[in-house]
Amino acid sequence: MIPTDAVMDDVLAQMLAFAEEAAPLVLTMRAAGLDMTNKGPDLGQALTEADLAVSRMLYARFGPDLIEEETADGLGHAAAKALLARDAWTFVGDPIDGTRPFAGGLSGWGVMVAACRSGWPRASVMNLPTWNEDRSGPAHTESAEAANGILFAAHEGRAFWAPTRGGRRTQALRRLEPSVRRTGHVGWLAVTAQRHTLDYGRGWFPWSEGGTISDAALLATGRLDATLSNNKLWDLAPVLPLFEALGFRLYHWPDLAAPPAAFIDLFDGELSAHDDLWLVCRDRDQAADLAGAIRRA
Prior knowledge:
The protein is built from 9 helices and 17 strands. It has 2 domains: 8-175, Fructose-1,6-Bisphosphatase, subunit A, domain 1 (Fructose-1,6-Bisphosphatase, Chain A, domain 1, 2-Layer Sandwich); 185-296, 3-Layer(aba) Sandwich (D-Maltodextrin-Binding Protein, domain 2). The protein is globular and about 45 Å long. The protein has helices at 8-32, 49-62, 77-85, 99-103, 190-193, 212-220, 233-236, 240-245, 284-291; strands at 37-38, 46-47, 66-68, 90-97, 110-117, 120-128, 148-155, 158-165, 168-169, 174-175, 185-187, 196-198, 205-207, 227-229, 249-252, 278-281, 294-296. The chain is α+β, with helices and mostly antiparallel strands.
């Protein structure tokens, strides 16, 4: 368990240890074969035993000061608000973000966790252990030991990355600087596409490779110019410190309003932001341009 008054270096070390313990485990479980089920009648919400294994790992490492996807339905908005408002560390985890691409042998998935304090995510670690997929030939699933990926960390306004193999870093963390390239592409996850359309004539083109974590990796590595968020608390909390460290901010669509002061106020009673759409952009001008290309479906 992590003391509620632990210093940032210790918090980050614990999150890194979790990410490098969880990723090899789920790679091994996937290689051995997994049955994928769905969370109730919603066929878009997949679940595997690996998700549950990482959920247990999150609780073993972060204990009661934790909000995570597989058990959050029983938590409730009021309890989540109280946890996040404290002047103490609260951790928000997603055991496997992108379970469907994970179980399907694709690359757009990973494990992620955030450390929140005084109402806002302050640090995070994301591990995408197969994200550096070799696309020089037909798709195939690598062995757990041979999988190449990428790990991101963000804290105190700084972003870092490292290559991974088998889910563990092969090099030390290095500073990740904001990209200066422009691609004209915006992250466009399925939950966004259910409710909105994009006017390609405005010069924005959608790109999605799985879930929130792969979307964040595309933005962080300069493959997207901007992205959108209208998912759930455990989707946004781990990616937001990385976005902010790279100079991105949240802008409400379509009025470009700033986000609330408390992170929990981005979400409804089900810890979902589905009725709102947030633009993740470098500045207000970029946000205004993107906002003009989005329509309600």
